[in-house]
Amino acid sequence: MNRRIWIVGGSSGIGLELVKDGERVVVSSRNASRSNELATLEVIYEEHLKIVDLDAASEDSIEQAVKKAWDAFDGIDLWFYNAGAYEVMDINTWDYERFEQMTRVNYLGAVRIMTALMPLFKRTGRGRWVWNASMASYIGLPLGGGYSAPKAALVNLAESLQPELLQYGIELQIINHGFVKTRLTAKNSFEMPQLMEPSEAAEHIFTALKEPYSFEVRFPFALGFFLRLLRMLPYRISLALTKKALP
Ligand SMILES: NC(=O)c1ccc[n+]([C@@H]2O[C@H](COP(=O)([O-])OP(=O)(O)OC[C@H]3O[C@@H](n4cnc5c(N)ncnc54)[C@H](OP(=O)(O)O)[C@@H]3O)[C@@H](O)[C@H]2O)c1
């Protein structure tokens, strides 16, 4: 398809797999230019791959990076926000700074970039924005709230913006997927149902990005069904069930 894609959060895990799609890709993250994996891919994809460092948690970094990413291929067809931060915190280890960092990366970074991209996409009158949220956005689970609360905010914002953006030809899409074996989930000590390899998750995402537009992309089916069901139950039942996840 040879679209011009900007992946924010593409230096490891799922994002790194997405870089291998073979389209024209600008890849960003805090350490993108220091990544050996990306340096190898740069040799393979040559002119089809550009690297722009960006810290989604820093306002200064974003303005410059948006300009560089836009100019790299003279426009962007698809912006993929994949940056994510995850820390497990219980109320005894609660740390505001870690919470703030997760909020900056999982939520505010997307909003900052969106704000800078908006006039450029509106002028073009078409394009797709894809935000990688998480099935964790469906319901707050014990010890994961610092991660899932900003993800839920991201999904709520997307629901609110989608109809308006569509009027300008911008298709906003969210991805809610389950557990993937990356450095983020390496922090989990519990058994993760339907855990996938990053390449498998990327395969689902590639397919979704080539299909006609729909607002939400969700996989795997069983975990998504279970968590959405939990969301729909009365709180006295759902919270009694999630309590069982406490260590
Ligand atoms: N793994 C899962 O089970 C799972 C499940 C549902 C959703 N997700 C979501 O999938 C996305 C990718 O996660 P992953 O599991 O592949 O983890 P990962 O390997 O840690 O990848 C996270 C990416 O985000 C980048 N990043 C982190 N902080 C950043 C910042 N401040 N500014 C710019 N980039 C930043 C990282 O690069 P640098 O360190 O170079 O900045 C890296 O490229 C995340 O949004 C995550 O929430 C993951």
Could you walk me through the main structural features you see in this protein, from its secondary elements to its overall organization?
It is a single chain. By secondary structure, the protein is of the alpha/beta class. Helices cover 47% and strands 15% of the residues. It has a 7-stranded parallel beta sheet with strand order 3-2-1-4-5-6-7, sandwiched between helices. Strand 6, helix 6 and strand 7 form a beta-alpha-beta unit. The radius of gyration is 18 Å and the shape is globular. It starts with a strand and ends with a helix. 39% of the residues are buried. The mean pLDDT is 96. It binds NADP nicotinamide-adenine-dinucleotide phosphate (NAP). The site of NADP nicotinamide-adenine-dinucleotide phosphate has 29 residues, from helix 1.
TL;DR of this structure?
With 247 residues, the protein is an alpha/beta fold. The protein has helices at 13-19, 36-45, 59-72, 96-124, 145-167, 198-210, 221-232, 235-243; strands spanning 4-8, 24-29, 49-53, 78-81, 127-132, 170-177, 216-219.
